[in-house]
Amino acid sequence: MDIALILSIFVLAGAVKGISGLGLPTIGIALLGLMFSPAEAAALLVAPSLLTNVWQAWGGGASLMLLARRLWPLLAGIVAGTALGGALAVDAAFARLILAEVLMLYAMLGLLDFSPRMAPWAEPVLAPLSGLAAGALAAVTGVFVIPVVPYLQALRLERDHLVQALGLCFTVSTLALGLMLAEHGALALPQLGLSLWATLPAVLGMMLGGKIRRRIPPLIFRRGFFVFLFAIGVHLLLS
């Protein structure tokens, strides 16, 4: 039953990513966090997240090199923040508390349709700071969305380019997180093997999500997605 439940979580997380372009680590960490510590859940998600994010980063219409050239301060901040967060040695109970708050904040921003706009002069300042914050939070919780997603939305990229930029940022985040987990002994061969096996249901879910993307009204999906995340955050907070 535990194995079936874990496989179902990966299918669901992959389906959400196939529909929206993000959400695999968020949904995966949120649901796996009910059974494991954030570090253990993040270790299981390394391989599926890396594969699907590389796929997403290469799948857009923009030049990956041009995106990387614009986003490199953000990406460098993510790597530095992950290393900093890994050095904090946060215990599992406190990590769950932070995870709950991150999920609830992200859900509230989504439900309120928070749509920031960034002035050109602010981008060089906010990029490394956003990366540092995102990397530190990812190291503690395994979730990459805050504040990377609001930052990229504020750049007002075209939709396909936004999805590709998210894939690039999440790829770098996953690599940095995987190295940090390996350094701290949380991603040894057994965990890596389980993570590789979990790639299959995640990819199947992503393909399924791609097929049903046009059958779900975007507004209904967004609201349901964020209400679901908020409910998981409340559950983690109370427990």
TrEMBL record:
Coiled coil: none annotated. Keywords: Cell membrane, Membrane, Transmembrane, Transmembrane helix, Transport. It is found in: Cell membrane. It is a multi-pass membrane protein. InterPro entries: TM_pro_TauE-like (IPR002781), TSUP (IPR052017). The chain crosses the membrane at residues 72-105, 125-149, 161-182, 188-208, 220-238. Its main location: membrane. It holds the Pfam family TauE. Belongs to the 4-toluene sulfonate uptake permease (TSUP) (TC 2.A.102) family. This is Probable membrane transporter protein.
